[in-house]
Amino acid sequence: MSTYPIHQMRNVSIIILLVAGTLALFSGCSQTNTDYTQQDFGNLVWKPDGSGMYGLFEKQLITVATDAYIIGVFDQTGALTGTVTTSDKAINPDFFLDPSATHAVVQLGANLYRVDLPSGNQTLITTKVRLFVASPDLHYAIVTPSPDGLPVRTISVLDLWSATPREVKKWDVAGVSDNSGIWMKNGTFGLTVNNGALQVNVFDTLGRLVDSVLNAEQVFHNGNYLAATDDFYFRTGASGIDRFNFTTRARDHVFTGEAADNFDVSADGRILAVKTPSGISVLNTKTLAKSFVTNDAIYWGVFLAPAGDKLAYIHQQSSTIRDVHVLNFTSP
Predict the structure, then answer these.
(1) Which has the higher per-residue pLDDT, 87 or 1?
(2) Which of 16, 83, 158, 181 could form a disulfide linkage to 133, CB 3.0–4.6 angstroms apart?
(3) Nearest 5°: phi and psi at 251?
(4) DSSP character for 120?
(5) Mean pLDDT of the 35-63 span
(6) What is the phi/psi pair of residue 23, to 5°?
(7) Residue 94 in contact with residue 56, Cβ under 8 Å?
(8) Is pLDDT at 248 greater than 60 in this prediction?
(9) pLDDT at residue 136 above 70?
């Protein structure tokens, strides 16, 4: 059974978005650690140059009866440097950035938005959908208008580069996991489906099934595709992490022994970092040599910096407060 650390337990998800040059936007909006009683995280994403992180988190303020959903800016040490309140609750923890990190496609409430990061302006794309994945250039978004939990769901491909976003194709797929979605090569994407057994089905933007990886599961923060090597990292139906190469069709086990709660792979494919019940370990993906990093009150998550020399995780500061910790490590 898949685990979704925040939104399954409390139906709260959070996104963090950080860009250089946005501190002026966030100035005056920051909260200190003395004015809230609860803080949860749903995601962290490192800035491409490793100088900080993006994310979205939730705070419950002493002076406010309802939760506040906040876009936050974190530096490379995990310190919060600025915040701004979002227009709606973030139901889906995933968000997707363009290569320049100036625009993002995110889901807020049941609606899909394009966000201009320097200004913070949000443009509505479409309503009443769940976002699965967007292409790295934000040309396409894969969504469903079907409610969560339906045995058969409609998959829709949206072209976001049109003057008005348009639907390229829609079709029905059985057994789609709520929080799956990974972009792959040549305009293809994977969705985790369960038709008696878990597998990742790969479709193109015209709705054609072009490949499948059996006994595989890719869900939120448990799947990586590396275009440079054509390698796909995913959880198996058991407790391990496998690697499948779409070019050679070779498949191998890269992590066994414990259930993987979350994992991440460095941009160059050199390092695999895994969060398990016993803590966080890092592996050399070529030699499979492994080093234990920490078990310091980890609430969930492991997020590798682009250079593969440090990682972040969500730390349990107190019974209701979680913060971001960052550690340096040496590759095994």
Answers:
(1) 87
(2) 181
(3) -130, 135
(4) -
(5) 71
(6) -65, -30
(7) no
(8) yes
(9) yes
